[in-house]
Amino acid sequence: MIEVDGTLKSRLAVWLSVTVTALGALLLVEAYFSSQRAAERAYDSQLESAALTIAEAVQWQEGQPVVEIPAAALQIIATRHQERVFYAVLDAEGRRVSANLDIPIPAEWRTQVAERPVWTNTEHSGAEWRLHGWEFDSAGWETQDPVQIWVGHTLAGRQALTGELFEGAVSRFLVMVLVAGLLMLLAMRVALKPMRRLRQLLRQREADDMRPLDARVPEELRELAETLDTLFARQRESRDALLRFTADASHQLKTPLSGLQSTSELALKSTRPEEWHRALTAVHQGAERTSRLASQLLSLARLRHVADGSGMNRLDLAALLRETVFDWAGRDVAQGHDLGLAELPDTPLYINGEPWALRELLGNLIDNALRYTPPDSVITLGLVKRGGEVELYIEDDGPGVAPEVMERLHQPFERGGRQDTEGSGLGLAIVDSIARRHDARLKVAPHTPCGLRISVSFPLENRP
Amino acid sequence: MMPRYFHAFAFVALLLAAAPGRAANPLVVEAALDREVVAPLLAAFELAHPDIDLDFLDRSTLEVDERVTGAAPAPDVVISSAMPWQMARVNEGYASRLDSAEARAWPEWAKWRDEVFGFTFEPIVMAYRLDLSRHMMPPATHADLHTLLTEQWDLLRGRVTTYSPSQSGVGYTLFQQDARYTTRFWDLVAAMGNAEAVLEANTRDMLEGISEGRYWLGYNLLGSYAMVWAQEHPEVIVQVPQDYSLVMMRMAFIHRDAPHPAAARQFLDFLLSREGQRVIAGETPLFSVRPDVIGPYTAQRLRDQVGDRLYPIPIDASLLAFVDPQRRDAFMQRWRREFMRR
Amino acid sequence: MRLLVVEDDPLIARSLHQALTPLGNTVEGFASHAEAGAALRHDSFDLILLDLGLPDGDGLTLLGELRERGDTTPVLILTARDGIDDRVRGLDLGADDYLAKPFSLAELEARVRALLRRSQQRSDNRLRLGALCFDPALGVASLNDEALELPRRELCLLEDLLLHAGSITPREMLENRLFGFGVVGSNALEVYISRLRKRLKDSGLRIRTFRGLGYRLEEERE
Known about the structure:
The complex is a heterotrimer. Chain A is of the alpha+beta class. Chain A contains 10 helices and 14 strands. The longest helix of chain A has 51 residues, at 219-269. Chain C has 2 domains: 2-124, Rossmann fold; 127-219, Arc Repressor Mutant, subunit A, CATH 1.10.10. The longest helix of chain C is centred in the middle third of the chain and has 20 residues, at 105-124. The relative contact order of chain C is 0.09.
């Protein structure tokens, strides 16, 4: 079941936009503060040069500093944003030698300025001001007192510059995001191209084309391509096996069918009722054999087909054995034999298995025993617990098989070197297949004093 | 005074008288600007805004300046030609911003912070009596004037007049600005002192003196008045200096604490509007600033006539230096020193 | 007896017809579930032979519908499917027996006979096999219409064997019936079986032993 869970594109886009938003927010905050710093620096340096220009104009007359405020200094303070202007020249005692506004300058600022230039913001006449204080030692003929110069202006220019710089940063950022987005789309197209190529390749394949993929893929898709290849290989194998099996099966079916055909053909040519009777008997036997062969082929095919072991569960082998033998003992085919069950252990014997397969296994074992032994033979099934295993056996007192064919018995279409009975030779092959599915060991041995003993040893399932 | 101004004045007076106790939408304008001079402008405003009860108070620059800080209630609009003082008041925060299309469109060089606007354009000129040209080549530049004063000082002694920097803010501003342009200005001051120049408080007195023959030569007169005067008095010749000519502007702002801010904005917008400027150019001796107003008394026409020699006193922070007491003291000291040098 | 055969293969249908008619039955055949279903709604039969894999539907559905209506007619399922799941489901839905294709006609006849006998006994309550008869209501057994005087355990044994006549009766079931759940020697049951065998001697009936599995009461074959 294929469930569509969004698109790679949208997933990438979501991740990218989350990242971009988070980083962008940080970046914009940073950009704002750095714009502010840049604006502050730019305008502070103007205040600095204005203070220097005013300092140039300070002169001493009769022990007092005198300053002819240079018009240029005021223009520098005002900046091109036409800020309101403040200047004050203070003598050593903090008296205002010259000032245009009465913005108060507290004593603490004045002492600070003695140490180093002061930058500060203050509120005056309904506006916020940036103030700069600077002290210098001026040399006059009589005195060498320090003079403090304070300059200041309103903040419109700083705010405007901050806004301007920030706007620039924002628009650069937006352009970057846009370009990044476009590049991402492009990159995604390029990155997903091998995927599209692979898809196209798979679409173009014929339904029965199981050849390995012939495609160039990036490292990330290698695993997928290899998995596909493995899948193709497995399908190829199973198809080949099926073809082989079908060929074998049709060959096997053709043989008895051609027997039926020739027998009936001969009988039709004859006019003698005895011939007809003989032929019909042969036809009946042949039909029986053929139908049995067909059902065996079917179960073999089913065994090969249903290979996933999904039907496995914990079951009591003893109960299953009793039930199956009970079923067979009542059947017509078993009436000529002494088919019985040995004493079973009292406790249940649990194994991990598929009931239908195990019934099939038992059925084939019993069927084989019934077919390959003469009437009135004693056939006994039973269970023996041996350590971690339980051995299921079937023994008979029939003629047995030669030691040299014993090894080959479980191969398909092997009939123990006998052509006289009506078997197909598939029975033990089916038993072998089922045993393998259950991790069980199949063993064929002679039974003393005569006959055959076939045993299948299953691992016990101890889990409660 | 020209008859048309009197007509206009009479018309305004009539208008005011005809509508006593109108709907109370008062507007108080404190102006250092002769009422007769701008009467047509005021009349046009009242015509355009009949709902506003305009109270135009004509005072000296000093009084106007005092009323900015001292008057209670504060005036709505303040107009003055004492540019540095206007500037200082604005810098102190007494102006409120005018946010209107007219204000935004106003030329950058004629406004500051969108708070104060120079709405007239008045070239500073020299004027001489026709008699002068019979004795000497009339001066066309500042240098000519200096040469004349040095070479013909015996003829011109007592016959030269100019602004008194101590009595007139306009005069002081003009001399400061002169001093900024050239250091030879002080030679001129010394020469005027040597010629025993008479210092007057305003342009009209200078013009009257020239007409009456007391003076032969006047320096730094308001060109707007002088040109109109010369039309009425053929013995007076107006000379726009050929080297440079200062240009003074009347500056108007809305008071921060204006009791009627809406009316004040309408008044200022009218001053800056095409209509207001047209009235200034066409019906008053003042020149208009707006470049889109056409007529003989416009900044543009003046530029066309005089060329690039017009130097408007810049409306910027440098004006603030002129009102710095120490700088003023220093300037006045030097003025006196140079004027009395002999 | 009226038999209903639901089978679409004409060869098999004809074989069934030919094999079952001589046993004294009337056989009606349908090749589709729809027809069979319609016939079942109007008519009643003594036995239904039902092929599960028909083109027009699943025989199990038909069976389910039948049982849902409360119809207890015995059903013998015939199918080519060898899946044990179908068999279990069929029996769960109320089928009485199950025969996988290919089957021998002899086997089919035996099953049919057993089913018919059981359905007959349901009406008559007496258990019969050959000359043997047992009336569970009276607790009396008779052989060739002669009362058979039997001890209680032998009578019980006979009843159980008759009840399962034709098929193997599990040994554990007989032991529980005779001896309760107490532990008994493995020979105890055999003792009673041999006693019963002696009584049935020459009656045309015999009890066959299935080693490790149980016993079956059957008619002796010639």
